[in-house]
Design a protein that fits this description.
Elements: E1 6-14, H1 17-28, E2 31-35, E3 39-43, E4 51-55, E5 61-66, H2 70-82, E6 88-89, H3 92-98, E7 102-107, E8 113-118, E9 135-145, H4 148-158, E10 162-167, E11 170-174, E12 182-186, E13 192-199, H5 202-214, E14 219-225, E15 232-237, E16 243-248, E17 262-264, H6 268-271
Parallel strand pairs: 1-4, 5-8, 9-12, 10-17, 13-16
Antiparallel strand pairs: 1-5, 2-3, 3-4, 6-7, 7-8, 9-13, 10-11, 11-12, 14-15, 15-16
The structure holds the ligand O=C/C=C/C(C(=O)O)=C(/O)C(=O)O and fe (ii) ion (FE2).
Ligand LBYM7D76 binds near residues 226 and 229.
Length: about 280
């Protein structure tokens, strides 16, 4: 069993790094941790980065998870290899680019690019962004899936993800107490469906609704409230059509052993209990 501990970062190819920087700092509210020639490292918490935009193809998207140590990383590589996934061990240069001690890369059954990392770098200075969006941390990602049942099995049986709730056949899965760290979303191919940051309060969600609307950032869903995690949310579109979400009040699963996933219908009221309608397919 591969034990994912937490999300580490997302890496996104950017068609225009300047646009990405402007969005990340003036709209989303991240802090520039480091600006390299062809890459921008962005902070949302005490880590050196949780999002990296690099000059490249916007379809080139990778999600990374932290693993406890090198032994567990080696074991994860062997497990994936035995299952027929091509596993790439990060070179020292690639590790330096990701600010981690070691990593392996592979593709999930849909073809999503996943990295498992050991010892992601922290930053001694606290996260302090120039735009006050109220961000308290990087929390979850939505991943496209071409076969929700197959991919649920991969994340729960090969990795340690547990299903918290389902909407139709779509699983919201946790790797720790937080309601979900990975959400699957039906799609025609691999890719990141959305990137979530938690914010401090309902006020932050609504303040951002007005702030982003004023900047003409497309709002794609919300403000609303998910009946699944209970979180109040806002989804909006960033560069290269990537969707970002702010949310607050996501449930924690206290009874790890006893929790049974709830089944919600695949219908709008399962996505928002206040009646907001998504401007894009989930
Ligand atoms: O559309 C349903 C979304 C559910 C949630 C949630 O319960 O918080 C998400 O954030 C998500 O799937 O990303
Ligand atoms: Fe989400």
């Amino acid at each position: 069993m591969i034990e994912l501990r937490d999300l580490a970062y997302v890496r996104l190819g950017a068609s225009n790094l300047e646009d990405a920087q402007s969005f990340a700092t003036k709209s989303l509210g991240l802090q520039v941790g480091e600006q390299a020639k062809q890459a921008l490292y962005l902070r949302s918490d005490d880590r050196a980065h949780t999002l990296c935009y690099f000059e490249g193809d916007p379809q080139d998207q990778t999600v990374a998870f932290e693993i406890a140590d090198q032994d567990k990383l080696n074991a994860a590589g062997a497990t994936l290899d035995a299952l027929g996934h091509a596993v790439h061990a990060g070179t020292p240069d690639e590790c330096a680019l990701r600010k981690v001690k070691a990593f392996i890369g592979f593709k999930d059954p849909t073809g999503n690019q996943i990295e498992l990392v050991v010892r992601p770098e922290r930053n001694g200075k606290r996260y302090f962004a120039t735009r006050d969006a109220g961000i308290t941390g990087f929390s979850h990602v939505g991943l496209f899936t071409t076969d929700p049942l197959r991919d649920e099995l991969f994340w729960t049986q090969v990795c340690n993800a547990r299903v918290s709730d389902r909407i139709g056949d779509i699983a919201l899965m946790r790797v720790n107490a937080i309601h979900h760290t990975v959400a699957l979303a039906p799609g025609r191919g691999p890719g990141v469906h959305h990137i979530n940051h938690q914010v401090e309060s309902n006020d932050d969600v609504l303040r951002s609704y007005y702030h982003l609307s004023g900047q003409r950032v497309p709002i794609v869903f919300g403000p609303g409230r998910h009946p699944t995690s209970g979180a109040r949310f806002l989804y909006f579109q960033g560069p290269d059509a990537m969707v970002f979400e702010y949310s607050v009040g996501v449930d924690e699963i206290e009874d790890e052993e006893g929790h049974r996933p709830r089944q919600f219908g695949f219908e709008p009221s399962s996505l928002c209990m206040w009646g907001a309608r998504s401007g894009r397919p989930r």
